[in-house]
């Protein structure tokens, strides 16, 4: 009888431990951010050397584009993003440059100067943004509301028309 109680207690404790392990493991490997998730408000340096975060952008719609200077589709879409930004005063277009060990910090700066990039550029110097957000590929564009909740995710190269269409759909009320 005493032996049965001990076995039952061990089984219950193992079940509790297994449940706790699964719950903790799920939280630590949440995966890439998706529609409905809140974008982390990570501070990064901009192209002027100032530290900024999403809280510095105040419009109801924020277009957050993740790119790298070595990514050909990223380079091709920059003129589209700039043109979209120039014609839409109610949308903040912000870009996050993914720096890697293979590319010096000067590479994106040279690129910015070369094409005359007029968009705000934030540099993910320590990789904190990329670790938190985990974009599945580049370029990746997130459409955020004023509370930084992701309303839509666009994977791949974008155009002004595509961006306007996706914003209209994501923010239709």
Short description:
The protein is an alpha/beta fold. Helices cover 40% and strands 21% of the residues.
Q: Would you mind describing this structure in some detail?
A:
Pfam families: Redoxin. One of its GO terms (biological process) is cytochrome complex assembly. This is Thioredoxin domain-containing protein. Keywords: Cytochrome c-type biogenesis. It is found in: Cell envelope. The chain folds into two domains: 1-30; 32-170, 3-Layer(aba) Sandwich (Glutaredoxin). The chain has a seven-stranded mixed β-sheet. It is built from five helices and seven strands. The protein has helices at 2-28, 72-87, 106-115, 128-133, 160-170; strands at residues 44-46, 51-52, 61-67, 91-98, 121-124, 140-145, 150-155. The protein is elongated. A hairpin with a 4-residue loop joins strand 6 (140-145) and strand 7 (150-155). The longest helix is centred in the first third of the chain and has 27 residues, at 2-28. Helices cover 40% and strands 21% of the residues. Residues 22-29 and 101-105 have low confidence and may be disordered. With 173 residues, it is an alpha/beta fold.
Search tags:
Glutaredoxin, 2 domains, 7-stranded mixed β-sheet, 7 strands, cytochrome c-type biogenesis, Thioredoxin_domain, oxidoreductase activity, Thioredoxin domain-containing protein
